[in-house]
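Hey, quick one: can you model this chain's 3D structure?
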Amino acid sequence: MKGSYVLLLMLKEPKRVKVGKLGFVDFKAGWYAYVGSGMNSLIGRVARHFKRNKKLRWHIDYLTTVADDVVVFLLPNGKECELAKLFNGFECVEGFGCSDCSCRSHLFYLGNFK
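Sure thing. Here's the predicted structure for all 114 residues.
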């Protein structure tokens, strides 16, 4: 199955994480939405995000290994960049997860809901 997905990630505490070539990123406590795609295998790509021990290859890998909770929504017909644009009003981490497109980011801070 091909398509896109939205990961919701919860950080219970603020964290400073080295994210590949982006360097160190300071993440606030709260919920984040990450938009990604799995054009060869949507299920395989998403399953990878739930593994703690993995080779850190993509920006999101660095965050999923430290997130306290991860939830996913699959969108088999979704288009990754169109989905990312739905979060344009939210604070984002510039350059996160979008090195292969012209989007500002694919990671958005949604807030700290208790």
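One thing worth noting: Residues 4-111 form one domain.
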